Amino acid sequence: QVQLVEPGGGLVQAGGPLRLSCLASGGTFTSYFMGWFRQAPGKEREFVAGIGWNSDSTYYADFVKGRFTISRDNAKNTAYLQMNSLKPEDTAVYLCAGGVSRYLFNYWGRGTQVTGSS
Fold first, then answer.
1. How far apart are CA 68 and CA 70, in angstroms?
2. Are strands 68-73 and 78-83 parallel, antiparallel or unpaired?
3. Can you tell me the distance from the alpha carbon of 37 to that of 98, in angstroms, rounded to the nearest whole number?
4. Closest to 72 measured CA to CA, from 15, 113, 31
5. CB 47 within 8 A of CB 37
6. Which helix (H) or strand (E) segment is 108 a member of?
7. Inter-residue contact 8 to 74 (CB < 8 Å)
8. I want to staple 92 with a disulfide (CB 3.0 to 4.6 A). Which of 40, 43, 73, 117 is the partner?
9. What averages of pLDDT result for each successive group of 10 residues across the chain (118 residues)?
10. Given CA atoms 72, 77, 82, 87 in this order, what sign does their dihedral have?
């Protein structure tokens, strides 16, 4: 059973950077497409970014293009989300997910709170 854990959330001043990590265990990390989602209070979960198993393909939601970067280190079974120029509207619980493709995620972390203060 694959387990995903996301340390690294927190409170960040608007305009500041923050890097999230997603540590995977219990499976073959290179088998999975990895993604980041977020859910703000009262809103539905939304896709933020995704990356293929060998980092050859990346995908971003329009609202983070140019500000966020997804990456992965297969040797460390870890995916990352580098967030720059954070805005208050980026405040949400950020969840890591792993799956067979960008359209089907089988495994989810519990999420980590990110708060962009104005």
1. 7
2. antiparallel
3. 11
4. 31
5. yes
6. strand 104-108
7. no
8. 40
9. 90 94 94 96 96 95 96 97 96 96 94 93
10. positive
